[in-house]
């Protein structure tokens, strides 16, 4: 994913190390306040949705066309059959993120710390294509621009068919389009054909996903990420030490690392690890043993 992966880091490095006359003083331009930029982005997105219609082919590729004066096409904003939105709190603001659900998919849904197998096309609102991957590529949703981690998990993966000639066909996958304000993209950075403060459009197809174990504790991050006792998307932090469980090697802060607490020895005396569902609870307790500090 050429542009999305860590592009911001490259821009920062290029800025820092670019040559300049030795007598010049480098003055960094401060970024715009998010509260100032978001209304501009939202107006641009709302206008696009109100003045364009979408056509979708059999493979969920989309074309956006300006509605001419007197045109009878249905604007995207009125496509209530496919236009969805979510509200996300970020930068002390509440953002509305719009997306098109072209196909939900049939399989498992990733979470925002999973790895996704996705094909995509990224465009500016004027139709300029700045990045594309016709063949699916793997990327960690945490390593890309924030909008992907919010929208892609709303979809499900599909299934694959191995053909006699060795090729693979994908079907029933999740497919959609996201309309991202700049703070969920590259914000003040200019990346290739993407100008600073540009809202972006991505057409994407979610082919597959993989769960990741970020802290290598033998418990997949999907089981350590969201706090099931809360509905606001809070991260699970069992021991309250400020380190979320999916990044904490000792989830209950008992001095014994989680990886050691979720292992057992089989009848041959070989070390094995429990599947998450089978990790036992402490005797007389309700927490799985690696989450209970009294169960060392």
From TrEMBL:
<dbReference type="GO" id="GO:0003755">
    <property type="term" value="F:peptidyl-prolyl cis-trans isomerase activity"/>
</dbReference>
<keyword id="KW-0413">Isomerase</keyword>
<dbReference type="InterPro" id="IPR001179">
    <property type="entry name" value="PPIase_FKBP_dom"/>
</dbReference>
<protein>
    <recommendedName>
        <fullName>Peptidyl-prolyl cis-trans isomerase</fullName>
        <ecNumber>5.2.1.8</ecNumber>
    </recommendedName>
</protein>
<feature type="domain" description="PPIase FKBP-type">
    <location>
        <begin position="113"/>
        <end position="210"/>
    </location>
</feature>
<feature type="signal peptide">
    <location>
        <begin position="1"/>
        <end position="18"/>
    </location>
</feature>
<dbReference type="Pfam" id="PF00254">
    <property type="entry name" value="FKBP_C"/>
</dbReference>
<keyword id="KW-0697">Rotamase</keyword>
<dbReference type="InterPro" id="IPR018247">
    <property type="entry name" value="EF_Hand_1_Ca_BS"/>
</dbReference>
<keyword id="KW-0732">Signal</keyword>
<comment type="similarity">
    <text>Belongs to the FKBP-type PPIase family.</text>
</comment>
<dbReference type="InterPro" id="IPR046357">
    <property type="entry name" value="PPIase_dom_sf"/>
</dbReference>
<dbReference type="InterPro" id="IPR028974">
    <property type="entry name" value="TSP_type-3_rpt"/>
</dbReference>
